Amino acid sequence: MEAPPSSSDPYKFLNITLNSDGSLTRHRDFPKLPPTDHSKDIPLNPNNKTFIRLFKSRNIPPPETKLPILVYFHGGGFILYSAASAPFHESCTKMADRLQTVILSVEYRLSPEHRLPAAYDDGVEAISWLRDQARCSGGDCDAWLRDTVDFSR
């Protein structure tokens, strides 16, 4: 059987190298952006180095208006990128503005260094955190969510 043409090599296409230990070397890293005045990072699981990046609309609604929340998992096939990668940060910023919603973007562990279901587990942990915020009535509530989000929507 003839080998496929080199242009169909997924490692070459994605500009990554599969190492002998099963990890990946990612040769192209998109710039990561820090949180801004309309976004913030909340540690999710420090042991796993996961976090949540929240985005609020820059078009501030009246104080009595509560917004829906959208949970967002960045692209990259579970092997590339971050919730802080420039294209995803910018997309979430635009979505928050255009949809008049709060965006919760999940920073999950990447494969193959963290084998599946690690990324799924991180997603479940983020959704569980959000559920706890919806039930929250004490001092551990995130102020952005408490003051801005309608959890029933």
Automatic annotation (TrEMBL):
Classification via Pfam families: Abhydrolase_3
InterPro entries: AB_hydrolase_3 (IPR013094), AB_hydrolase_fold (IPR029058), Carboxylest/Gibb_receptor (IPR050466), Lipase_GDXG_HIS_AS (IPR002168)
Keyword Transmembrane helix listed: no
Keyword Hydrolase among record annotations: yes
PROSITE patterns, sorted: LIPASE_GDXG_HIS
UniProt domain Alpha/beta hydrolase fold-3: residue ranges: 70-151
Protein's name in the database: Alpha/beta hydrolase fold-3 domain-containing protein
Species name: Brassica cretica (Mustard)
